[in-house]
Amino acid sequence: MTHKLLIRLVDAEYAITRLNIGTPLPDWLPGAGFWAVSSSREEMTLVCRAARIPSSVQSSGGWRCFRIEQHFTLDIPGILASVLNPLSEAGVGIFANSTFSTDYIFIIGSDLDKAVAALKAHGHDLMN
User: Fold this and answer.
1) In angstroms, rounded to a whole number, what is the distance separating the alpha carbons of residues 103 and 7?
2) Closest to 82 measured CA to CA, from 118, 108, 55
3) What is the pLDDT of residue 1?
């Protein structure tokens, strides 16, 4: 099932940072815009606006963020796939993150034009 979605391009650059397990959360992490912490046995991953990350912290910057504007219940299949499949077909790599209410899809900024074209070609509405 393919969903036609309203997708917002978030007006900020994001970065993804890897920290060792057990590292306290840095005080620069919370702030405006989306931010997230994921943790596993091997690592802790932080996502936030790139401008907040000190230059002394190793991170992967230059990511742009798409936010799905509709809200769906957690049991609706295919929402994220409706965005990821067109991006994959266009050769755009992604880093996805979800909240209870919606999904955030991060792409490298140099792929932005290609990503926008692919999403529009699959019937999605994009907004800034």
Assistant:
1) 10
2) 118
3) 52
